[in-house]
Amino acid sequence: MSLALSCLLLAACAPSNRTLAALARHGAIQVDARVKAASTVNIHAPAEVVWRILADATAWPRWQPGVETVSSSGHLHDGASFTWQTGGTAIHSRVELFDPPHRLAWIGRAGMAHAIHVFALVPLGPRDTQVESRESMDGPLLDWFYDSADLQSSEDTLLKNLKRAAETTSASSEPAETYVAPATPNPLPHVSPHQRN
């Protein structure tokens, strides 16, 4: 059997776009995928700031050097389709879960490879957010040239860059601290307000 026919047969056994979309809509990745990774980072920025950075796909190349280009009609939204390029590979993606500012997931295809990428943002207070990124990739022979260790390294780098971008954005958008003069002491501290007149 030829390599091309083998690849076609393997691709026919892959999950359908409908199956992948259903997983992504529930914030899940493909657990039986050959290539998987997960990473978590705490970011000193509000969840809304982190969300704006993630949802502005056309700006990804500014903070994520591995992303070369993004073609999108603007900010991501539920059902948005976008194409982005990394390592010379074009990835055709569609947003399946859009729950601002908590969860974002999309599915993507590049050739016969397919992926699910899920982000979960958990506010840890008004100025801190925990971000979890999980991704699964599968396709014929994919793990021969790109394995889970490669994807893990990519996930770790992505979150490191997201942290830097969000913390820089958050710091630059904070209002300047205003000097507040100490309260003037009560001129008659031992006299109650009724006794002053």
Keywords:
seven-stranded antiparallel β-sheet; 31% helix; disordered C terminus; disordered N terminus; 7 strands; globular; alpha+beta; 197 residues; Alpha-D-Glucose-1,6-Bisphosphate, Chain A, domain 4
Topology:
Layout: H1 3-12, H2 17-25, E1 35-43, H3 47-55, H4 60-63, E2 67-71, E3 81-86, E4 89-99, E5 103-110, E6 113-125, E7 128-138, H5 142-145, H6 148-173
Antiparallel strand pairs: 1-7, 2-3, 3-4, 4-5, 5-6, 6-7
Helix pairs in contact: 3-6
Descriptive notes:
This protein is of the alpha+beta class. It has a single domain (13-169), classed as 2-Layer Sandwich (Alpha-D-Glucose-1,6-Bisphosphate, Chain A, domain 4). The protein is built from six helices and seven strands, in the order ααβααββββββαα. It has helices spanning 3-12, 17-25, 47-55, 60-63, 142-145, 148-173; strands at 35-43, 67-71, 81-86, 89-99, 103-110, 113-125, 128-138. A seven-stranded antiparallel sheet has the order 1-7-6-5-4-3-2. β3 and β4 (89-99) form a beta hairpin. α3 (47-55) crosses α6. The longest helix has 26 residues, at 148-173. The protein is globular and about 45 Å long. The N and C termini lie far apart (104 Å). The model is unreliable at 1-12 and 175-197 (pLDDT under 50).
